[in-house]
Amino acid sequence: MPTLNLFTNVPVDAVVASDILKDATKAVAKIIGKPESYVMILLNGGVPIEFGGTEEPAAYGELISIGGLGPSVNGKLSSTLAEILQTKLFLDPSRFYVKFYDVEVIKNKTNLSLSLSLFPPLC
């Protein structure tokens, strides 16, 4: 089950939260290639965050999935999620950071590979 935990220092009212949850669920499902019924999104607004030495609007996310992640998918997810946050919370995409965890289950062993992504890409 893909799970996205989003944290932002921007206060989020119920209507905006609902819009973000719907848009993020659709985006994660489509880009990873899993049914929406398997996607979970958690949104935490008004969380104290300092990013780049300031407390200007910012967001942090962690996406965990069993398969479906990789460099091209992660880049597309980063930019799509940043667009959602920019549209709904007026958050500058350069102040959004997301960490990806691709968990693969192999013969009763769990192998956790970690992939980091920044938006916009630093390279």
Automatic annotation (TrEMBL):
Any stretches that span the bilayer, and where are they? none
Which key words tag this protein in UniProt? Cytokine, Isomerase, Secreted
Q: What is its main location?
A: secreted
Parts forming coiled coils: none
Q: Where does it live in the cell?
A: Secreted
Q: Which Gene3D superfamilies match?
A: Macrophage Migration Inhibitory Factor
* Reactions performed catalytically: L-dopachrome = 5,6-dihydroxyindole-2-carboxylate; 3-phenylpyruvate = enol-phenylpyruvate
> What EC number is given for this enzyme?
5.3.2.1, 5.3.3.12
Family the entry assigns: Belongs to the MIF family.
> What name does the UniProt record give this protein?
L-dopachrome isomerase
The top of its lineage is:
Eukaryota, Viridiplantae, Streptophyta, Embryophyta, Tracheophyta
